[in-house]
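Molecular record:
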Amino acid sequence: MINIKECGEKLVDLRKYSPNAILTSTIKNHAYLRESVAKMINKAITYLPKGMTFKIISAWRSAGEQATIYKNFWHFVEKKHPGWSKEKIKKFVETFVAPFKGKYVSGHMTGAAVDIRLIKNGRNIPMRTNKLSYEENSQSHQPKLPKRLINNRKIMFQALEKVGLTNCLAEFWHWSYGDIWWAKSSNKKTAIYGLVDKI
């Protein structure tokens, strides 16, 4: 049983707090993370090879945004697998998208989670291949990937792990600290960040 004991730490605007990270256009107006998580991102950048930095794909999300992502993915899976039961669809969907309500809501809704990629000199560093399915590509430790892609992931993973962020093994791009999912994967009894309804 994992408890949530909200510590009250503020969220910070990554546009000002993390100027060395690249923000995607979709989150520039609400690119917020808990201050400790933002500090970790800043520190992790210093462990990357010269010319590399992080591209932030997603940070804090509102319940409405998370619900939209959840429902859109549900419809995508339902269309792709018309013979699947609702229980099977739910299990599959929640492997990749956390719920938008209840105790185990997405870490994005707490400001503790970030979806992240690597870029070098303004260009995306490849970490997936067209030869594998979405599910296979998503797995953090995917032995079917070409060696160069495995090495690219290793560069990102080592920098983020070094500062204390933990990875969701089903999604190589998803990292967090302090939320209930971090507590679960780190064998902690208490999460320090709970739901943030609005900025």
